[in-house]
Amino acid sequence: AQRVTQPEKLLSVFKGAPVELKCNYSYSGSPELFWYVQYSRQRLQLLLRHISRESIKGFTADLNKGETSFHLKKPFAQEEDSAMYYCALRITQGGSEKLVFGKGTKLTVNP
Amino acid sequence: GAVVSQHPSRVICKSGTSVKIECRSLDFQATTMFWYRQFPKQSLMLMATSNEGSKATYEQGVEKDKFLINHASLTLSTLTVTSAHPEDSSFYICSARRVSVNYGYTFGSGTRLTVV
User: How far is B51 from chain A (nearest CA, A)?
Assistant: First the structure.
């Protein structure tokens, strides 16, 4: 079954501390993974996609196929990073596609 | 950049009435649009996928006669909640996929539906 698991509902860190938001997936095909962020009262927006291997706002995420993980990391968290973070898996099936989301992790960065 | 406009942002309707939610891609063409439902403090659950000019594909457990989806053009998809009941109250979000950009999913700002 295709599934995205974010084990932490809530994560709280202090400003300047490292942060890691966990994401594990289950998919029989070749995985394509994303991180989306939703700041307070704003729409969902793309943060990272694994194929780009980019760093956005100091965040990075590496796809580990062996551990079926795509954890999001930032070495020094900032207060403005406080938001909901969703990990998503793109599934393709018979010409159709969709994104399956994890349940999200609410990150709070305290001053 | 890619912008998806979703209207209305909030709507309150009486039980038994129908409500239409619009999702427009403002500066790009979207062959595929997705409709999600989000319950409080929960994740986005995909309801259906709409492709321009063809019937929508509904996820298991979603009543297609209740949630009517129309994708009449490359820039507009609509979701109509028919004969709404209080249990249909939720946050509905649309997403559009750009034609020319791989993995280009852009999300609308969502519609808060309250059925009284």
Answer: 10
CB contact under 8 A, A44 and B42: no
Distance in Å from the first CA to the final CA of chain A: 40
A33, A36, A43, best to mutate vs chain B, most B CBs in 10 Å: A43
CA distance B105 to chain A (A): 8
Give the model confidence (pLDDT) of A43-101 as tens digits: 999 898 887 777 889 999 999 999 999 999 999 999 999 999 999 999 887 778 889 99
Residue with tokens 């280009």: B104
- With helix as H, strand as E and coil as C, how does chain A read? CCEEECCCCEEEEECCCCEEECCEEECCCCCEEEEEEECCCCCCEEEEECCCCCCECCEEECCECCCCECCEEECCCCHHHCEEEEEEEEEEECCEEEEEECCCEEEEEEC
Question: Do A38 and A45 contact (CB within 8 A), yes or no?
Answer: yes
